[in-house]
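Researcher: Let's try something more involved. This one mixes different molecule types, so please make sure each is placed in the same coordinate frame as the others.
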Amino acid sequence: MKRNVAIVGGGQTHHAARRQDVSQPEMVNEAVLAALKDANMTMDDIDAVLLGNMEFFEGQHMTDCWLADSTGAFGKPGLKITTGGTVGATIIAAGAHHVASGLFDRVLCIGFEKQEEGDTNAILSGVAHPLFGRSMAGAAMGFFAMLGSSYMANFGATEEHSAMVAVKARQNARKNEYAHLKLNIKIEDVMNSRMLAYPIRMLDMCPASNGACAMVLADEKTAKDRCKKPVWLRAMETAHNEQFVLEWRDTSSTAPKFSDVAATRVYKKLGVKDPASYYDVFEIYEPATWAEILWYEDLHLCKKGEGFKLIEKGITEIDGSIPVNPSGGVLSTNCIGASAMLRIWEAALQIRGDAGGHQVPRDVHRALATGYGGTCWTVVTSLSDSLED
Amino acid sequence: MTDNALWPFEVEQHITAMSKYYAGKIGSRFYITLRDEGKIMAVKCPRCGKVYMPPRETCGPCFYNMKVDDMVEVGPEGVVETFTQVHYNEPVIPREAPFVYAVIKLDGADTGITHYLGDVDYENISIGMKVTPVLENERQGNILDIKHFKPV
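Model: All components are placed in one shared frame. Result:
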């Protein structure tokens, strides 16, 4: 990047299925105030405001405009971003690019979703291709179901393996005061939960959450002058793919896959040979259990077809050698527009040592965060406590 | 007045939004051929040779705009690449649960299409299974002109 960019503050709401006590402006404002407080800044310090959510999930458009007062954007430059599941990470990428370019020094980034207020399944059907996909669309679940079926058939994983991911997420969430689903569950609870679309059961899926996340990004001078523990954004990559190329839904395919391509580019940029040892913690976007197992492989934490062995051996547990989603991840909290930003914020908290109950029990210097969107695009973000790596 | 006395007040909202979508040259040929001749047309990129099903306007990797003349008949038989059985109902889905849908790669195509499986017990479905389309008699010019795919 042309100029170095750091995360100098952030905050989030407590995430929940019901936030009937607040309006959308009030809920978003909670995260904004938390981020400003954490950054030790006021709105006067902010040069520009970037906001995003999943378009129309709340039945509202142009949220950047009508939330301008409560986001602090009044009179300031800014823009709105909507890239589906990845939106939170895309906002951070856009904010970082604005700072890196020299255009702004301090940018406030906000992602939110108040899912209970809209008809998310109906709006999601609009993601499908109008000619070939809409009659088969049934939210995101069918996609992950077919991914799971294919993975089990090709590599010998079982439904118990996905259940292990479900248990890990909710047990980690119990350590995270902000998480939505804090469930004290065991593998048999997952196996006994209602079948939605084989092999996806109720506890294999993320919840529909309400919540917001906000972060302040700054240039190197501001970060060094004003922030005790800046977390540097070292590299970000996005790779697009068209949704009807279903090759990668067949898990045996060797065709280039968006998530793998983006991760490979980040590793190349930073000279990462062995990501499992280079990074101390991972925060990945897993709306369903099988997505997490596939991410292990796409991020090169193991060989293709061996992702289920990592969860089986406990390697990705909070105290394992490759901790993945100590926060409880998207499986425990999915306020969509905030979810990918929460991955980056949680990764930053781990590097700062400020994650609280779900801080991983090791020194954290570097972390990797990912996003995940309905139509196959992704954002992979690499963070570090140092500008030297 | 306390906060509790204010909480919560809800305003019901309802929006009905109609839309239409013009299928374009490639999409129109696909639907007209399916409706009138009962044939399934894919499109082959003249540059890289990849056969896209469902057909699309541009080959992404080549950034090459394909033409109606580049369309080729595929199938009608194909192979199940992956599948699921859905146990919940959604207003947007024109089938009652439980139903099965699958990614099917038609013979001669390089990419799979999502569609329903029918005339088969769920226990007997497997990846790699050969299937063939069952067409509606009165076809309207939409993807449900193919009722579903069934085992060969």
